[in-house]
Structure formats: structure tokens, C-alpha cells
Design brief:
The protein has helices spanning about 55-70, 130-145; strands at about 10-20, 25-35, 45, 45-50, 75-80, 90-100, 115-120. It is α+β, with helices and mostly antiparallel strands. It has one domain (about 10-145): Nucleoside Triphosphate Pyrophosphohydrolase (Alpha-Beta Complex). Strands 1, 2, 3, 4, 5, 6 and 7 form a 7-stranded mixed beta sheet that branches. Strand 1 and strand 2 (about 25-35) form a beta hairpin. The radius of gyration is 15 Å and the shape is globular.
């Protein structure tokens, strides 16, 4: 089925903020090192483009598994991030999700990731896109829920 629209359509992506409490009792976050431009070689949240026939929830689960090897994480929708210039390629809106990885599984980078690694929240590298803002908002939400 083909469509022609008068107005351009933005792309939709999902991004995942995955927290983990490692043995040092400090909160860590999972990042991937990007294989492709833009921001090739920089660290970013796992995520990617929504396929035509999948839900946002299916997209985030698929992207996380493809880029890190992790699966069966319960994700919570955080919010949409829609600044017009957040992606230098084109207009992209991302819906961010967050969740916890309770164990310390082996990470297997794949598809768009050349590396996947846990980082201490106090020692994050420079991040691609607007991922620092997304992480800050996810941390606030996670701490609110943990305090309940």
C-alpha cells in the first residue's frame, strides 16, 4: 500500500534507558557504541527506528536485543522527545523507555553497535543525540518509583 502526503512525515524511534545495580552497589546504565553515522564511535542509548508493522513496545524490545543481546526486560514508557534538531539526519521523534536489568548478563553487541557496556551514572562518556537529557529524566522517574 502506497501513500502520498502533502506534508512530510517525521521518523519514529525508540530509545532504552536500562539501569543495573552491579556488585559495587552503584547504579549503572547500559550504553552502546555506535557503528554508524551520525555520531559514529560515540556512546548512546540502545534503540532504533520503528518498523511499519510493530508497536513501540515491540520496537524497543527488538532494538535492545539486536544491539545488546538482552531480552525479557520489562520496559516502562518514559516520554516522547521531539526537538526538531535532535537528529542531524532528519526530523525524528523518539519515545523513550526505561527498565531494570536485575542480573549481570553477558552483553552481545550487534547490528548498529560495535560495543555494549555498563557505565556508572557518575562517569558517563559524551553521549550522542539528546541521550543525556533522556537519561536524566529516566533517572528521576526510576528514583520516584523506587521511593514509593
Amino acid at each position: 500500500m502506497s501513500y502520498t502526503y502533502e506534508h512530510p512525515r517525521p521518523a519514529v524511534t525508540t530509545d532504552a534507558v536500562i539501569f543495573n545495580m552491579k556488585s559495587d552497589e552503584k547504579l549503572n546504565i547500559l550504553l552502546i557504541q555506535r557503528q554508524n553515522e551520525p555520531f559514529k564511535g560515540q556512546w548512546a542509548l540502545p534503540g532504533g527506528f520503528l518498523d511499519e508493522n510493530e508497536t513501540l513496545e515491540q520496537c524497543i524490545a527488538r532494538e535492545v536485543e539486536e544491539e545488546t543481546g538482552l531480552k525479557d526486560i520489562k520496559f516502562y514508557q518514559l516520554e516522547a522527545f521531539s526537538k526538531p534538531d535532535r537528529d542531524p539526519r532528519h526530523r525524528t521523534i523518539t519515545v523513550a523507555f526505561w527498565g531494570f536489568c536485575k542480573n549481570n548478563p553477558k552483553l552481545i553487541p550487534g547490528t548498529d553497535a560495535i560495543n555494549a557496556k555498563w557505565f556508572n551514572l557518575t562517569k558517563l562518556p559524551e553521549l550522542a543525540f539528546d541521550h543525556e537529557e533522556i537519561i536524566k529524566k529516566a533517572l528521576v522517574r526510576a528514583l520516584e518509583i523506587m521511593a514509593e
